[in-house]
Amino acid sequence: MMPALPAVFEFDRYLDVFADMAASGSPAELHGHLVGRLAAGTRFDHATWLNLASELAEATQSANEAGKLLLIQLQDASLALLAGSGFEFTLLLPDDSQPMLLRSEALGRWCQGFLGGFGLVPREAALTEEVEGVLADFAAIAQIQGEEEDSDQAESDFMELVEYVRMASLLVFSECQPSERDDQPPAALH
């Protein structure tokens, strides 16, 4: 059993927001997209993020104020946790009381969203071999076919995969952030 998640990462809350927005997208894919863009170095103001979230959710209605606040909290918490120690960073996925098939499909959608978000950000520098490996792994995970049957082995395998995706996301984030040196003029040589 996983420890309790902060309220901002409770998957069911986003299902409610998506229902209020008459959205046909996936909360897991939305979060994956957000993390992919953040990992690639993009930062959004809240208004831009809310517009993007509505588009990604394939919403036909605007989020209500509570939904907007939750989406902003997701953005802020995701960036803070990615930039922090990483220990608290989590993926927005259904909890472990849900069937394995639903959780596996959500993990695949999360990885699909990450790849889509990361791929939209132009890169000036070549990606490291480690980052290229992670992106290839995420592409494979995005094709995941969930198991119909819940079993201890399936649960264990799934938890290992979630932990890998979580840690790999942190790796991509740390590898792809613009360095402070890139923002400063070169030092004069004497």
UniProtKB/TrEMBL annotation:
Known Gene3D superfamilies for this protein? YgfB uncharacterised protein family UPF0149, PF03695
Q: Where does the signal peptide begin and end?
A: none
Q: Name one Pfam family in it.
A: UPF0149
UniProt xrefs under SUPFAM superfamilies = YgfB-like
**Listed GO cellular component terms?**
cytosol
Instruction: Tell me the InterPro entries matching this sequence.
Output: YgfB-like, YgfB-like_sf
Its family? Belongs to the UPF0149 family.
Name the record gives this protein:
Uncharacterized protein
Per the UniProt record, the source organism is: Halopseudomonas yangmingensis
